[in-house]
Here is the input.
Amino acid sequence: MNDNLHQLRCFGCGALISGAEAQPDFRCVQCGDLFEVVYPGWGQRGGPDRPNPGALKWLWRERRCSSEELDHSGVWRFREMLPILNSFGNVVTLREGTTPLYQLRRAAKALGIDQLYAKHQGMNPTGSFKDTGMTAAISVAKERGFKWVACASTGNTSASMAAYAARAGLNSLVLIPDGKIAWGKLSQAMDYGALTCQLKVDFDGCLKLLTQIVKEAPIYLLNSVNPYRLEGQKTPAFEIAEAFEWSVPDHVIVPGGNLGNSSALGKGFRELVQLGLVAQMPKISVIQAAGANPLVRCFNEHQATSLEPVEAHTRATAIRIGNPASWRKAVRAIQDTGGWCLDVTEAEIAIAKAELGSEGLGCEPASAVTLAGLKKLRAEGKVGSGETVVLVLTGHTLKDANYTIDFHRGTLLEEDETACLEEEIAGLQRNAISVEATPAAVLAALKDRVG
Ligand code: F0G
Here is the structure.
């Protein structure tokens, strides 16, 4: 059976090509822009390939009780929304997706809003949101007969790619910036058997290099310039809409690095509206670290029409990216939905991360920008008290345990970064203490804490 109903459309000039015609770097030969996957059959109302919204909602719910491996994946449970393979028999899955949507009661109270949730994509098999995209793109790589796959990465993409490649029996090549990725992520790439190259350039340099390499060897590029990655990464939009009984929250807030994720979620919600599954899109806001904020500058200084690369610096290494590939797609997601793009400081990120931690929801520093950003949006009156907000937490807290330990020990931030925030930070720090091995000493420590 051929389940494949897609084409690729250039985001810049609109050129339409078949999946097999894509260049190794996934750039348009006419204008150099990126492609997105489109499903021509969806445009024709009443056409045989246009999915029926009522039937889909029913089918997807039924699949939750199914014993089929494909139905256990939170990506492929929605497979009618990503008919990108010749056969779904080629799917490579680690049962990704179906991540929890947690209510954040304490943070909601502190911010004076009723409904605040965290969609925790760090609860995926390799600990980040990348798995939802990787299952889709690795399945395409396998179906097309590639033996090698590759990515440049700040760590999570490489961890995810290495795992899925190993499951598929493919070889994987990872290019990472030397010394600038968290140990948890590097250890995963090693464990899953990738050929891991640490290069003395930043993420943007790694990606540039890889783009040249894939033109010279039959290696399948798995960065988010690969439009199939975004097809998998759009599925959390479906999970969110389903969790809200096919209405949508007022706001979805996402971290911004290479900007694939915000683009993918925008596409997911847009397609739900296109097919009549929901009535409107949520406002999608993208938050960057102040030291790695090319999209914020693009909005503030260039009316979102051009992007000047920046030299990126942030301890949230996952989003240490100065020249994001998918910026045009992310601009569309923000503008289509009436969302915002803003940045937050290193101290704001660290505080937000500790606050999420104190609610029992650890996450990576890069994920915590969402809560830090929400505080700003709320202070500026852009999020109302009666509105519903979903923060997308992108990575698991154990990915970067060093950051967390440094924060609690007080060695993470410099003095000039914490000015006026000392008390707030001290109130969140929970350093481990050395205690004599006697009941009396432990009880004394307990008394100290309780006060
Ligand atoms: N959060 C985490 C934990 C990430 O790993 C990334 C990106 C982002 C947010 C930003 O997402 O790039 O789609 O805007 N990490 C990539 C990597 C770049 O190589 O793992 P984006």
